[in-house]
Design brief:
The complex is a heterodimer. Chain A is mostly helical. Chain A contains 4 helices and no strands. In chain A, helix 3 runs antiparallel to helix 4. By secondary structure, chain B is mainly alpha-helical. In chain B, helix 2 runs antiparallel to helix 3. The radius of gyration of chain B is 16 Å and the shape is flat. In chain B, 38% of the residues are buried. The chains are: A mainly alpha, B mainly alpha. Chain B: GO terms for molecular function: sodium:proton antiporter activity.
Chain lengths: 137, 89
């Protein structure tokens, strides 16, 4: 195996290990759940992507064939990570809403007239002004 | 060189798994635990990939793919159960 290819694969493995470690450290140390959600969904997914790239390069160097399994796993992980994060955030917000008393996580203001779409109904679009919401209909 | 990098990767991912386990046991809310389990599944996929490189076999990729799919499905089912009270209405 060429030395530069070996160095590249080793670098990818080390970087992906560091990213996975940082993601789990964030999951452990950050104070609130909405912050904790950031670390695994971005850093850990990137780390796994790096490990899969390293594996692809490794088996290309060893066996001389490009395997597509890693690309499948990478595509699946990169597609499902945002969906998972969205579901977890939504479940968290609804459970926070349902629970009364105790310390609640305060959401920042939206900056518009209406509130967050998880809690409040869609903004009233009356008459001609409804063109700014293209998703309706 | 790849040997040492793989050993570093094993150590890093194992430490990350221990941290996730800590969050899973400690987690103040149920959603924290769901998030910890989801992260543990992703870390296990990375561990399987590293082990496949360590042994030089491509046998483990199907396991990684299956684990990715089951992790996603289980997380979505958990969150839906928390939101709705049941999984399939």
């Amino acid at each position: 195996m060429a030395i530069w290819l070996e160095a590249l694969i080793a670098l990818l493995i080390v970087v992906s290990g560091v990213f996975i470690l940082v993601g789990s450290l964030g999951l452990l140390k950050l104070p609130t759940l909405m912050m904790r959600l950031h670390a695994p969904t971005k850093a850990t997914t990137l780390g796994v992507g790096g490990a899969l790239l390293a594996s692809m390069g490794f088996f290309w160097a060893v066996e001389g064939t490009i395997s597509v399994h890693e690309l499948l796993v990478t595509a699946f992980l990169f597609l499902t990570a945002p969906v998972t994060a969205h579901f977890i955030a939504k479940a968290h917000l609804h459970l926070e809403r349902k629970r009364d008393g105790g310390e609640r996580e305060r959401l920042p203001q939206t900056g518009t007239g209406s509130g967050w779409s998880t809690y409040d109904p869609a903004p009233q679009t009356g008459g001609e002004e409804g063109d700014s919401a293209p998703g309706e209909g | 060189m790849i040997e040492y990098a793989l050993i570093f990767g094993f150590v890093a991912v194992s430490l990350a798994l221990v941290m996730n386990l800590w969050r899973l046991l400690q987690g103040p809310s149920v959603v924290d635990r769901v998030l910890a389990v989801d992260t543990m599944v992703i870390n296990t996929i990375a561990l399987i990939i590293l082990q496949g490189m360590y042994q030089g076999t491509t046998l483990y990729f199907e396991a990684a793919l299956l684990l990715a799919m089951f992790g996603f499905i289980s997380t979505v089912a958990f969150c839906r159960f928390l939101l709705r009270g049941n999984v399939i209405e």
